[in-house]
Amino acid sequence: MTEHMSELLRIMERLRAPGGCPWDRQQTFASIAPYTIEEAYEVADAIARGDLPHLKDELGDLLFQVVFHSRMAQEQGAFDFDAVAAAICGKLVRRHPHVFSGQGALTAAQQSAAWEDIKAREREAAHPEAGGSPRAASALDGVPRTLPALMRAHKLSKRAARVGFDWEHPSQTADKVAEELGEVREAAAASGPAAPSDEIFEEIGDLLFAAANLARKLEVDAEAALRAANAKFERRFRAMEALAASRGETFASLNLAAQESLWAEVKRVE
Asked: Is residue 61 part of a domain?
């Protein structure tokens, strides 16, 4: 273990020890989990911006989260940081037999498929016995409920596709999106000007799931695609505001036709 890694573990131990940091001492796995997720997103943000100095800092923050959870587990006698490192080492070796067991070279696509096959076998082996026989495994086991909804939709449909529950062609998946959009329109028409109904809520969810499934079928990362769309919208919207200001106008005071004219102008110059 490197000197700095050992120092980080000592710092964490000191923070949690009697007389340490009151805030750190009162934390639990549940209270720290949101910070862990936040730090992972900040790592992704630094990567998206190509900011390597910031990435170094954010990776350090994420590493601290791992150390924090490991320390709390150690205090409970469950496991420690070394056990966490040992577990991931074992998993990486186990899931790369072509590298560590001399099974021959694979393409990236073959390795991805092999990885999923190994994971599936591990999930099946991990099910506890109930009534003398293993509990029936689901192809959807192990997809975390805390994932962002769009990412989880992608993973759920991917797992279903692995056992044959999938459209044969992307066009069929696109037809499903159109079908779900039609059902949203019908539910909205039936609801009228009233507040959105439970039916509209459900149909919007079905539409979003179908769109995520279409993205998977077209081999597009739906989460990344939506992030890019968000960035594009933000860029264009800010440009409209700036363009209106340059003409002595306040964007919010313009009618919709004038705003749409600015939008078209911004798109043309991109």
From this structure: yes
